Amino acid sequence: MTSRPPEGRWLRPQTAVRANVTLLDKPKDAQRHVSLRDQAYAAIKRLIITTGLRPGEILSEPALSTQLDIGRTPIRQAIDRLLNDGLVEVMPRKGTIVKPVSLDEILNIIDARIVNETFCVRVAAERASTEVPAQLRRNLEAMREAAQARDIETIADLDQEFHAIIAGSARNPVMSDLLRNLHERSARMWFISLSTNEQHLRICAEHAAIVEGIARQDPDEAERAMRAHIESFRANITRQG
Question: What is 102-240's CATH number, 1.20.120.530, 3.40.30.10, 3.30.390.50, 1.10.630.10?
Answer without folding.
Answer: 1.20.120.530
